[in-house]
Amino acid sequence: MINIVLFGPPGAGKGTQAENLKEKYNLKHISTGDVFRYNIKNETELGQKAKSYIDKGELVPDEVTIKMLNEIVEENMDSKGFIFDGFPRTEAQAEALNDLMDSKSTQIDAMIALEVPDEKLVERLLERGKTSGRKDDADESVIRNRIKVYYEETAVLKEFYKKENKYYGIDGVGSISEITERISKVIDQL
Ligand code: ADP
Predict the structure, then answer these.
(1) Is the CB of 108 under 6 A from ligand 1?
(2) Atom of ligand 1 nearest to the CA of 57
(3) CB 9 less than 6 A from any atom of ligand 1
(4) Ligand 1: residue whose CA is nearest its atom 1
(5) Among 132, 123, 149, CA closest to 59
């Protein structure tokens, strides 16, 4: 299996790149944000648990998120590998992901981090908010809170994967296809 963590702040372009990469490498794309939004739309119990956090731009509690992620991986163990998009976002999630990979006798091969300046992130998310219908993209203060949460809780994961020699930083500014190329160079070397 090839398992990639696609990493970066909100608006870095993880979802867009994951769409290209999943076709190119035939990997299963798991976006925790998409799974939460699907559950909110369908008014499931999970959706109800997640909604208030997402609307404020806070993280959904680890317990809820980790359980959900474990279930999706379990259901897709026939795939060639995974692109994790939006997970892990905390150290507890990263530990849980390592344990899960261990239990499947596989591993995370790389964390590929898209680097984009903050002001560009806000600009992209406000633009996306015009068409995405996402409440958390519509309000600049919620956007800024998501970026703040990223720096406070998520950015430390760079160190986590650096320690494991799995960290690859990529310039996330450029055309979509240029960035796919940059990421592909990393994946092709794994
Ligand atoms: P973005 O990266 O643009 O913020 P996502 O679709 O990845 O968008 O996530 C949207 C929201 O879903 C996050 O702000 C957070 O509330 C919740 N969420 C997604 N993934 C996680 C996670 N791994 N842990 C906790 N909350 C999460």
Answers:
(1) no
(2) 14
(3) no
(4) 10
(5) 149
**pTM for the predicted model, two decimal places:** 0.96
DSSP characters for 92-120? Answer: HHHHHHHHHHHHTT----EEEEEE--HHH
Pocket test for ligand 1, best of 14, 17, 32, 126 (most atoms within 8 A of CB): 32
C-alpha to C-alpha distance for 89 and 155, rounded to whole angstroms? 8
Query: Active-site residue numbers?
Result: 14, 89, 128, 134, 146
Average pLDDT of the chain to the nearest whole number: 97
Give me the pLDDT at residue 171, please: 98
Q: Indicate the domain borders of the chain.
A: 2-188
DSSP alpha helix (H) spans, the chain: 14-25, 32-41, 45-56, 62-75, 91-103, 118-132, 135-138, 140-149, 157-163, 176-189
DSSP class of residue 59 equals P
Q: In CATH, what number does 2-188 get?
A: 3.40.50.300
pLDDT 10s digits, 65-107: 999 999 999 999 999 999 999 999 999 999 999 999 999 999 9
Which of 89, 121, 134, 135 is the pocket-test mutation for ligand 1 (most atoms within 8 Å of CB)?
89
Relative to the CA of 93, which ligand 1 atom is closest?
23
CA distance 185 to 75: 29
